[in-house]
Amino acid sequence: MSTYTPPLKDMQFVLRELAGIEHVAQLPGYEDAAPDLVEAILEEAGKFASGVLAPLNWSGDQEGARFHDKAVTTPAGFKEAFAQFAEAGWIGLSGDVEYGGQGLPKLVSAAVQEMWTASNMSFSLCPLLTLGATEALLLCGSAQQKTTYLPKLIAGKWTGTMNITEPQAGSDLAAIRTRAEPQGDGRYKIFGQKIFITYGEHDLADNIVHLVLARTSGAPEGVKGLSLFVVPKFMVNADGSLGARNDVCCVSIEHKLGIHASPTCVMAFGDDGGAVGELVGKENDGLKYMFIMMNAARFGVGIEGVALGECAYQLALAYAKDRVQGRDIAGSSDGVAIVHHPDVRRMLMLMKAQIEAMRALAYTVAAANDTAARHPDAAERKRSQAYVDLMIPVVKGWLTETGNELTHLGVQVHGGMGFVEETGAAQYLRDARIITIYEGTTGIQANDLIGRKIAREGGATVKAVIALMQRTEAELAQQAGPEFAAIKFALGKGITAVSEAVEYIVANYGNDIRTVSVGAVPFLKLMGIVSGGWQMARAALAAQAKISGGSHGDPFYPAKITTARFYADHLLATAPGLAQIVTHGGAGAMALDVSIL
Amino acid sequence: MSTYTPPLKDMQFVLRELAGIEHVAQLPGYEDAAPDLVEAILEEAGKFASGVLAPLNWSGDQEGARFHDKAVTTPAGFKEAFAQFAEAGWIGLSGDVEYGGQGLPKLVSAAVQEMWTASNMSFSLCPLLTLGATEALLLCGSAQQKTTYLPKLIAGKWTGTMNITEPQAGSDLAAIRTRAEPQGDGRYKIFGQKIFITYGEHDLADNIVHLVLARTSGAPEGVKGLSLFVVPKFMVNADGSLGARNDVCCVSIEHKLGIHASPTCVMAFGDDGGAVGELVGKENDGLKYMFIMMNAARFGVGIEGVALGECAYQLALAYAKDRVQGRDIAGSSDGVAIVHHPDVRRMLMLMKAQIEAMRALAYTVAAANDTAARHPDAAERKRSQAYVDLMIPVVKGWLTETGNELTHLGVQVHGGMGFVEETGAAQYLRDARIITIYEGTTGIQANDLIGRKIAREGGATVKAVIALMQRTEAELAQQAGPEFAAIKFALGKGITAVSEAVEYIVANYGNDIRTVSVGAVPFLKLMGIVSGGWQMARAALAAQAKISGGSHGDPFYPAKITTARFYADHLLATAPGLAQIVTHGGAGAMALDVSIL
Fold this sequence. Notes:
The structure is a homodimer. The first copy, chain A, is of the alpha+beta class. Chain A has a domain at 455-588. Chain A is 55% helix and 13% strand. The first copy, chain A, has helices at residues 8-18, 21-24, 35-53, 57-63, 78-87, 106-119, 121-140, 143-155, 286-322, 342-374, 378-413, 425-432, 442-450, 460-477, 482-508, 513-518, 520-548, 556-570, 575-584, 586-589, and strands spanning 66-68, 71-73, 158-163, 179-182, 187-198, 207-216, 226-232, 234-236, 242-245, 248-253, 264-269, 275-280, 324-327, 335-337. In chain A, the strands form 4 sheets. In chain A, strands 4-5-12-7-6 form a 5-stranded mixed beta barrel. In chain A, a hairpin with a 4-residue loop joins strand 4 and strand 5. Chain A is globular. Chains A and B meet through strand 13, helix 10, helix 11, helix 12 and helix 13 of A and strand 13, helix 10, helix 11, helix 12 and helix 13 of B.
């Protein structure tokens, strides 16, 4: 059965050398995030992940969440683990200190979330969704709503959900039909059905706080008529105690490919007279609030990509070291562990290199998020926010697609054993398959990237990022040796590829959006691969500085340089081809009539 | 629930225009394969696949094969379907006429197998394995073995298996330990355990004919000491009736990611005194016979790649036409079916284009196989056999990897519904995951390709294939219009990429096998993509000839040209990057010590 060892050394390296934890710790309000304290926090999180959550991952998958008579039972051990998790304060790690949170920066919570997902993705979704609800209420809720809900959510006494999707409204939020009727006392009655509601019902906590997108009577058509409501499972009395059962219930759960232990619920609102809800923020501003939550959620799903890649890698590596099969291709006739076979090594290096690149990219975006939130200089906040806005679809889209590829490779390394469920590799593949879909498919991310984030501003932010990449390229040129030569060569090609693709998008998006949009996902992959390669190049430079500064023979640093070089040779090498697809792939794609497909 | 419509029009196009069914039908012994008769056969097979097998695919997955007390029960309907299948003569389609087969060429059986797999992969594995056993006995068995087993196997009264893998011997056949002790009467007693035995036990037929790789007492170490044995589940009396139960039984079946209806058995030989077996062919020649079977089996698994891609495509296309979500990106504000969204269209075109390329490549290799077997001219037989030998690892490796990518895309097109098992898209993904593994992983195929098939002969055959590709490129230059210009441009780049990679492999394989082998799988993908692009270019030329010759406005032909152009823009565009990985990716991959991975 699988075990999980938190990759603390690489996490620390990224936090300190690439994401600038020291700078983040100097931002107002983040003074507690001193590097040494953060190190201690990550160690504790790692113990919880490997000691409590990982042992429930496989059993949770096999047992699954069960539904009976409107109630959901989570697998054995989940309830106790959630209580421990809440008790240890993990839910409130990045929560507002005013409501009992620890107020740590996103950079720290990102690293911690990676461990929760890697050790037990199904479990991790409950706190992740709770965090989303917490952020929405903090940003948009009334003072009373905050006082009522936030302390309980942050303490893990209650949990939160996001109720967006309906059968006819998936990616298309304009099609939402759930309606909210004002009752004259400031409250509303909610009627409608929501689907795909993660942890919409469960037995982990006393109350569930549903955040629900709905349409008030007479609201405008489309997305401009959506409002956000808070609808608790149990009404909350003035003293904070639980009151009557609200008219919202789970009517079924989905039979899914993966994340079996995470209940995916069909929720019925108002079947018995109307679910009581309160408006959050202003009427018809629901979409805006949802996008605030969505950006955090999309980042969180991106982290799932690196997390699933990591646990798939650890399992595959352990098997490859243990499994003796065949002889060394260029050596003796004795049997060797398959880790010595070139193609197995290539697969493991593909996993290792892309995991490290994904982690570096995600954590640096998290740090930029912290800067955007707290930096005293408004211009710096704005610059950081523009970078975050640009990179969120890349983090969500590229990390989740890559996470899927890595779980596929994880099975492949196992050979026939990978297809046997008991091995555990197949579970990662199954669990990963949702991450390129929920919180906006890769296609949705890519359209957001080329449209709102690039074309609309004439590519200003992405060109600024390209300039930063070029600075890194110039630094590479100062280094000696074949590794840095290979990294510089490939990064240079990659930067050129991104630049050409950006020029094409900016020049043509306005007059031929359909053709340009065919290249949206190929561009997102290109942007992800080159951004990841940029971070790996920065990592190689940082590692070289450590070596030059006297790293006492720690093999971590030369390995980082070698891994960056592998990434350059095997991933950045695909960048020119992706740019070619972006700039030349549009015409043929839309040419066929639907009837002949 | 999924349905399957046999893609008869494209199959016929490939058979007639690309694979040369007319020429195959002129080969001695294949006179029955006249194009019109073949068309009728494919129509009948299509009816059986869509009418009998497809309806059992989902229910078979959900019910799964069940094991109890050494017996395996297949899902409801499988037994009746197999009886109908056998009765209709489908098992013996390509079987020897002397033993009741219909003696049709591989080109026809390949197309028919595609339909069996696409409609019900789990079911299809029983006749596929039976065919493998039949071929082994036909090629290597004694006259008496042929008379005893072949008519029953071809008629579907009995079925066959291949018993190769053992717990310590997966890809590494040298590690096989199952032993065979001669009994002095020409028979042997077999002792050992085999795993991953497809349909090793079931309730579809009266007897099961196991072909078993084992080691006789005193045989040489390694693969040179392997012999092939036939071990029936029930002994066969002289009159052909069934005798005593042999000492071979199923002790468990695997709990797998996919192909749930296909029992994957652990088989125990000789737990009760020894399983009685007969030597097939000569002692210690087992590996040679196994490779004969293996080439056929590998081709058959390659066909599974295109088959699973096809059924995933059909399901995704139907959903994309039906699902209304969002508005046209450049059009009116009315909701549109998602098939009109550029990224959905891109995904569907990726599926369609690669399916057509895979089918064309596989069928042309099947035709070459028929030529190699039956052409009156020895030089032509040799040339064809060399082409087949070169392309078998490409067909197996590239089609199965691509098939996995397409089932992944099939889920993606469905969005959240794709993750729900009832939709059926996830089953294709699960079922497909084994095909890059069994009958030799992609890594094994790629090593075979660059080593035995290219480096060992200095690249002679692959260079001859490159010359054929260049002839097609020259023909493209004769055509007008942007489609042919795009196809010619991309194919030219692809050919250059293959040539450069081949030169590198041939020049360096001998002195640096480890470094070169890192590029084996990237080269296999490159070879597959360019070979597929070559076939799509041939298809476009054939379609243009049809149009020029008066195709009466049939939209199939212009669509074929557009699809070939899409393939060029989106797949061939990746060829230079793959060549770069092959020629430059070796150094960094093997550099790390295992302890730092």
